[in-house]
Design a protein that fits this description.
Length: about 90
């Protein structure tokens, strides 16, 4: 079975995913990215509400939803890595 190389020591997929996220968030929706100023985007979005939900000054990537989604993704990748015995011990603990 062929799997995505996300947990196989290949950085290109996470780099592309991060670029796509930032481009979509700021270039298309015009939202704040990583605490930077709001930039004009293709669409005009007005994000308002609780800082817990909207991410406040940090933007949507600082919201509780983004944290939960990233935590779930991390747990899935840890499970897959453990299942396929891909976790490498640090050099000082071998």
């Amino acid at each position: 079975m062929r799997r995505i190389k996300i947990f196989r020591r290949n950085l290109w997929f996470p780099i592309a995913l991060h670029f796509a996220w930032n481009f979509t968030q700021s270039g298309i929706y015009g939202a704040i990215t990583s605490g930077n100023e709001k930039t004009p985007g293709l669409l005009t979005a007005k994000i308002q509400g609780s800082e817990l939900i909207t991410g406040g000054e940090f933007g949507p990537e600082g919201s509780i939803q983004a944290s939960v989604i990233c935590l779930l993704g991390t747990l899935i990748l840890l499970f897959l890595s453990q299942k396929e015995n891909k976790i490498v011990k640090p050099y000082w603990n071998k």
